[in-house]
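This protein record is not my work; I was only asked to verify it. Take the sequence as given and treat only the tokens as open to question. I have pasted the whole thing underneath without changing anything:
***
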Amino acid sequence: MSLLDPLLALFRRSIANPPAPDPVLEVERKILELPDPRAERVVARARRHLGTGRYGLGRGGRHPDAVTPFDRDGLCDCSGFAAWSLGRDRKTDEIDGGWISTDSIVADATGPRRMFRAVPIGEAAPGDLVVYGGQRVGGVRVRIGHVGVVVESGATWDAVRVIHCHGGKRPAVSESTAALWGRKRGIVARPVAWG
């Protein structure tokens, strides 16, 4: 008989008769699986405007209590749409530059994290944002960034579903995968207040 035999016997018994689950831990697990009501509100606001609107750079998203993200001319851009979906005015002192924009979202999520924090794509959840910043060459903007609202999670950029306001074909607000953000080396930005 080896010194390890009693330990092996104990191990075999524990595998054959696992302990009953802790009811408190089970309740906590179920609570954590419930959708966040804030995220549900963000997704509902974004979905409400699928198939609507016209794109206008720097437009919309100024009145979070309004029934629409669009300005009086019916225009909105991606940052305005995302801010409005989150229930925020895109003009805010909480973020560098004073405006919720693609560049400020990326800078905040990867830096001071006052409003947003970066999370891995595999942890993207409804209500998060997918975003890539603009590009400057020699101080000149050569590409603007883009942001969208996550409405369905997934393990990869191709699996995550996003609603966004874009300057392509009308209508401006549409749903797609997050593949574009993956190709542009984007990030997932979660509101800091959500944990």
In short: The first strand starts at residue 54 and ends at 55. The chain is about 30% helix and 20% strand.
